[in-house]
């Protein structure tokens, strides 16, 4: 018997209401990710990437379909349980870093451990060792505004990983960075993948998606495997 995927979406639909009018953003999306995979979801602006990421990240729920994460069915659970799963299982990385600017890098990385009720000394040690992992131990006391964009994103990645989540979920992680810095962040993702981290990365950039080991395409809210996508282009 094969191993269960880490996450599995089946026949997910998502519709937003614009006043009285329904607008369907995701159409019958089925998608699964095995433990240890590095997958990229590639699609143009407005195709539904962030909507899909919000569902995968337990920030939002679908209108229909089933979402299983590890052994839990996420589809119809309460908001507070959803928050719990989110904190435990998902490490988020965003385009604009979303760091708190008034506290230091190491304090930013410690924050998720505060919510996880980890003791103070252990918080500090774990945060410092995550900062070392992303190559920033010498900037631990800087506030985000005393860092470059690439350094800020490294802090955000350390913060995402410090709780040892099941999945690192990144939405356009290089979108605010110049090309070279973006490539360095992708090298970091590749080395995290080599260590066994499961990564789901959303991007509109073909180049950035090529760092992933598998690419799926999203077009107007429909998801296609690489093979399906290529076949569609040839039609
Ligand atoms: N809360 C909302 N209410 C109504 N429509 C929405 C809402 N959020 C997103 N949409 C619509 O859903 C579609 C997909 O949006 P989404 O943000 O998922 O796209 P995206 O692929 O992440 O785009 P980008 O690359 O520009 O970030 C868009 O047409 C958008 O206008
Ligand atoms: Mg988006």
Question: What is the structure about, briefly put?
Answer:
The chain is an alpha/beta fold and 235 residues long. It has helices at residues 49-56, 79-89, 105-115, 120-133, 149-161, 179-194, 206-209, 226-234, and strands at 7-18, 21-33, 38-42, 64-69, 72-73, 90-93, 167-171, 198-203, 214-219, 222-225.
Please characterize this protein's 3D structure.
The chain contains eight helices and ten strands. The protein is of the alpha/beta class. The chain has a single domain (7-234), classed as Rossmann fold, CATH 3.40.50. The strands form two sheets. A six-stranded mixed beta sheet has the order 6-7-8-3-9-10, sandwiched between helices. A four-stranded antiparallel beta sheet has the order 2-1-4-5, with helices on one face. Helix 3 packs across helix 4, helix 4 packs across helix 5 (149-161) and helix 5 runs parallel beside helix 6 (179-194). The longest helix is centred in the last third of the chain and has 16 residues, at 179-194. The N and C termini lie far apart (36 Å). It binds adenosine-5'-triphosphate (ATP) and magnesium ion (MG).
């Amino acid at each position: 018997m094969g191993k269960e995927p880490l996450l599995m979406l089946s026949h997910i639909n998502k519709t937003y209401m614009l006043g009285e009018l329904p607008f369907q953003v995701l159409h019958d999306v089925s998608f699964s990710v095995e433990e240890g995979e590095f997958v990229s979801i590639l699609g143009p602006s407005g195709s539904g990437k962030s909507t899909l990421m919000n569902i995968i990240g337990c920030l939002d729920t679908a209108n229909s379909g089933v979402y299983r994460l590890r052994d839990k069915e996420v589809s119809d659970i309460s908001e507070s349980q959803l928050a719990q799963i989110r904190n435990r299982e998902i490490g988020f990385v965003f385009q604009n870093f979303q760091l708190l600017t008034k506290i230091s890098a190491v304090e930013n990385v410690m924050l998720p451990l505060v919510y996880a009720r980890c003791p103070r000394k252990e918080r500090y040690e774990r945060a410092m060792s995550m900062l070392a992992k992303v190559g920033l131990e010498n900037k631990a006391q800087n506030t985000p505004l005393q860092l470059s964009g690439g350094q800020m994103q490294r802090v955000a990645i350390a913060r995402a990983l410090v709780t040892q989540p099941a999945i690192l979920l990144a939405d356009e992680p290089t979108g605010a960075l110049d090309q070279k810095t973006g490539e360095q962040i992708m090298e970091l993702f590749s080395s995290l993948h080599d260590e066994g981290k499961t990564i789901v990365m959303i991007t509109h950039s073909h180049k950035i998606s090529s760092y992933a080991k598998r690419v799926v395409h999203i077009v107007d809210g429909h998801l296609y495997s690489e093979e399906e996508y290529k076949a569609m282009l040839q039609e």
